[in-house]
């Protein structure tokens, strides 16, 4: 394969990686909006829509909600900043001798970015559970609306997060073990 063919393959692979990173940043942005919505909907001392005594969430739930929202925002921002840095690294050209080193850094950055997104999803899910308890009543009261909302959250969000991260990983590293090195835009051939 000639140098021109290899350059074209590298360009195509780089575009796939940049597109995957753009998707990660976009998803993180959407989740960040959810963080701010969650913060705006939580009011101290708020009574739940559950009319039974003892079904209101404690003030501690409100503090935990704010903590989880801030942790979630931090994780999404961390992930997005790492992804933006990776995009810059992918677009940068360099000597062949430094490509292997940059590829290792790129892989480490991808793991950090994916971990940040996953941590952000986990803490956002916890904060949404707390928000449901504040608005609809604590789970121990077994209110139908609270139970359905929380079961949906703790079931669908992890499945979606795992599906997204696995497809992101696949888009970045390719489907075949043997292709991983040759498909890398920074590999040394």
N→C terminal distance: 10 Å
Helix content: over 70%
Q: In percent terms, what proportion of residues is strand?
A: under 5%
The number of distinct helices, counting runs of at least 4 residues, comes to 5
State the major sheet: none
Q: Give the overall shape, derived from the CA principal axes.
A: elongated
- Identify low-pLDDT runs: 175-189
Query: Which structural class fits the helix and strand makeup?
Result: mainly alpha
Radius of gyration: 21 Å
Average predicted confidence as pLDDT: 76
Q: How many beta-strand elements?
A: 0
- Secondary-structure element string: HHHHH
Can you summarize this structure?
With 189 residues, the chain is mainly α.
Detail the topology: elements first, then pairings:
Elements: H1 3-41, H2 59-91, H3 96-136, H4 144-173, H5 177-183
How would you portray this structure in words?
- With 189 residues, the protein is mostly helical.
- It contains 5 helices and no strands.
- Helix 1 runs antiparallel to helix 2, helix 1 (3-41) packs parallel to helix 3 and helix 3 (96-136) runs antiparallel to helix 4 (144-173).
- The chain is elongated, with a radius of gyration of 21 Å.
Keywords:
about 190 residues, mainly alpha, disordered C terminus
């Amino acid at each position: 394969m000639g140098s021109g063919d290899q350059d074209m393959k590298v360009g195509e692979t780089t575009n796939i990686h940049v597109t995957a990173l753009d998707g990660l940043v976009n998803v993180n942005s959407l989740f960040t909006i959810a963080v701010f919505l969650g913060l705006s909907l939580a009011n101290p001392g708020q009574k739940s829509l559950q009319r039974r005594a003892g079904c209101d969430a404690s003030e501690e739930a409100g503090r935990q909600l704010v903590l989880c929202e801030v942790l979630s925002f931090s994780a999404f921002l961390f992930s997005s900043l790492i992804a933006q840095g990776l995009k810059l690294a992918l677009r940068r050209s360099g000597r062949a001798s430094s490509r292997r080193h940059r590829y290792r850094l790129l892989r480490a950055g991808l793991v950090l970015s994916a971990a940040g997104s996953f941590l952000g999803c986990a803490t956002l899910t916890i904060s949404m559970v707390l928000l449901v308890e504040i608005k609809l009543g604590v789970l121990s009261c077994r209110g139908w609306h609270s139970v359905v909302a929380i079961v949906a959250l703790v079931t669908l969000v992890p499945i979606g997060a795992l599906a997204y991260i696995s497809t992101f990983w696949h888009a970045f590293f390719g489907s075949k073990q043997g292709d991983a090195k040759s498909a890398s835009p920074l590999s040394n051939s």
